[in-house]
UniProtKB/TrEMBL annotation:
Highest taxon in the source lineage: Bacteria
One Pfam family, short name: FAD_binding_9
PROSITE patterns to which the protein is assigned, alphabetical: FAD_FR
Annotated signal peptide: none
Record domain FAD-binding FR-type: where: 4-136
Entry protein name: NADPH-dependent ferric siderophore reductase
Native organism: Aeromicrobium panaciterrae
Length: 280
């Protein structure tokens, strides 16, 4: 199936992970299409795998299988789907299911409200996946820095680490009730940072905490993802001050405060080196 034909997925169930994090589990006939592309992507091994969620407009009849190029060429602009990028938390090929976690902040955003009202049997198309990051087992230790948007990728990466691996995580959330139980066989040092009443993307908690922490010796493999301010704070600290080679750092802004994903794409295209991935 081409990139213009997203997989047609069906909601199987939802799970409330924290007060602001909702998991939607998908399955259905479209799983095989997604799984085929997942396995073609580094054998499905990337832990930052992400997909485009395709939200169709009400009141229009769309071609099936859905072809995004055909929609844009033949249908009015009001019918063009809204795309939102989300990390795939996990893929279970035996159960033929995959999970996507949504950060919910009231009625804000587009995908969050959809997830809040999602019911078993609802249909959503998923385009992808893509990905580029996998923890390097030859590194001396691993550093993870991010907010709720990065939690799915961070938890996925931690679960791949083997006994004896060394890992440190700095994660910003609203408060103690928003922390997740992190599963890993690695020796993990985790720092949960609570923003309290401050809005997401408004604090310097992550930057302050990482800079104040005593950097470990040896070769670090680094994953820094979340609100775009991390690109201007944690990124130069890691790359310039701590001299982590770019090949050992996956650093990306997942979102930007006050900007829709469409606006965020424009902003990122205007930045120099806005996304740094292994081998880039």
């Amino acid at each position: 199936m081409s990139k213009t034909h997203p997989a047609r997925m069906t909601v199987i169930r939802t799970e409330q992970l924290t007060p602001s994090l909702l998991r939607v589990v998908f399955g259905g006939d479209g799983f095989d299409d997604f799984a085929q592309r997942d396995l073609a992507l580094n054998g499905g091994a990337f832990t930052d795998k992400y997909c485009k969620l395709v939200f169709l407009a009400d009141g229009f009849d769309y071609p099936e299988p859905l072809n995004l190029e055909e929609v844009r060429e033949t249908m009015p602009q009001d019918a063009w789907p809204v795309l939102r990028t989300y990390t795939v938390s996990w893929v279970d090929h035996d159960a033929r299911e995959l999970a996507v976690d949504f950060v919910i902040h009231g009625d804000e955003g587009f995908a969050g409200p959809w997830a809040s009202s999602a019911q078993p049997g609802d249909v959503l198309h998923l385009r992808g996946p893509s990905g580029a990051y996998l923890p390097d087992p030859t590194a001396d230790w691993h550093l993870f820095v991010g907010d709720e948007a990065a939690l799915p990728a961070i938890t996925s990466a931690l679960e791949t680490l083997t006994p004896g691996a060394q890992a440190v995580a700095f994660i910003e959330v609203d408060g103690p009730d928003h922390e997740l139980a992190l599963r890993t066989a690695a020796d993990l040092e985790v720092h949960w940072l609570h923003r309290g009443s401050a809005g997401p993307g408004t604090t310097t908690l992550l930057d302050d905490a990482v800079r104040a922490w005593e950097w470990r010796p040896g070769r670090a493999h680094v994953f820094v993802h979340g609100e775009s301010a991390l690109l201007k704070s944690v990124r130069p600290y890691v790359l310039t001050e701590r001299e982590v080679p770019r090949a050992d750092a996956s650093i990306s802004g997942y979102w930007r405060r006050g900007t829709t994903e469409e606006g965020f794409r424009v902003w990122k295209s205007q930045q120099t080196e806005a996304v740094i991935r292994p081998g880039a």
